[in-house]
Amino acid sequence: MHRVIEPLRVLPAGSAVLDAGCGGGAVGRWLAEQGRHQVLGIDPELPDGTATDGPQKLPGGGTLELRRADLLDLPVGQLHDGVMLLGVLHYAGSADGVRRMLRAADALSGPGAPLSLSWICDDVPLTYQEAYLPGRELVGRVLAELGWTTADTWTREVTHAHGGSPQHDHRIVYGTWRRV
Ligand SMILES: C[S@@+](CC[C@H](N)C(=O)[O-])C[C@H]1O[C@@H](n2cnc3c(N)ncnc32)[C@H](O)[C@@H]1O
Q1: What ligand 1 atom has the least distance to the C-alpha of 84?
Q2: What global pTM score does this model have?
Q3: 44 touches ligand 1 (CB under 6 Å)
């Protein structure tokens, strides 16, 4: 995990970082404290009671703001110094959905901003349910079209069961991208 957000952690203190699809905000909180960054976490499924009333100062330094919002609806006002979508692209539902998410992330990224991604890819299909899992080629191609180049990419194999599912395998892609 740390490797995928390292390019964000090492940004200058006070950098504005967007954690799109932040879940409960644990990764954004860690990053805000470690890097002393101003992290905005958004998620349409933000757990009840987690949203903050604006940016909250953290004891370790930095600030964290958590908002219930969808990446696809986020106004392109502020550009961020770094953007992460961790575990989010496999929620896109289709190749078009992936394109929309990546275009939104691109539009919200400042000129030198690193982009950190992880997602469950289609190298290992799900056997027990229908699910759209984005391919590595698709994500790489869309990002290349948007002017991003891969800085680092790797995969990890996971075998687990959750929510009553049978045990199953995933291949998770991790990667960081920079603008060409
Ligand atoms: C597997 S969780 C990952 C949470 C967190 N990023 C982490 O790594 O722990 C994926 C999250 O992406 C969110 N998500 C899905 N589509 C989204 C969208 N269009 N905009 C923002 N978040 C989205 C889901 O609601 C879910 O909370």
Answers
A1: 6
A2: 0.97
A3: yes
Q: Whole-angstrom Cα distance, residue 35 to residue 12?
A: 8
Q: Which two tokens stand for residue 165?
A: 């599912």
Q: Which of 138, 20, 137 is nearest to 76 (CA)?
A: 20
Whole-number Å distance, alpha carbon 11 to ligand 1 midpoint, is 23
Q: Is 50 exposed, middle or buried (0-12, 13-18, 19+ CB in 10 A)?
A: middle
Alpha-carbon torsion angle 44, 124, 143, 105, nearest 10:
10
Ligand 1 nearest atom to the CA of residue 70, by list position: 20
Q: Is 45 in the pocket of ligand 1 (CB under 6 A)?
A: yes
CA of 71 to the centre of ligand 1 (A): 9
Q: Dihedral, CA atoms, 163, 139, 176, 17, nearest 10 degrees?
A: -70
| Residues 47-106 pLDDT 10s | 999 999 999 999 988 999 999 999 999 999 889 999 999 999 999 999 999 999 999 999
Q: Under CATH, domain 2-179 is a member of which superfamily? A: Vaccinia Virus protein VP39 (3.40.50.150)
Q: 56: number of CA atoms within 13 Å, CB side?
A: 14
- Cβ–ligand 1 distance for 72 under 6 Å, the answer yes
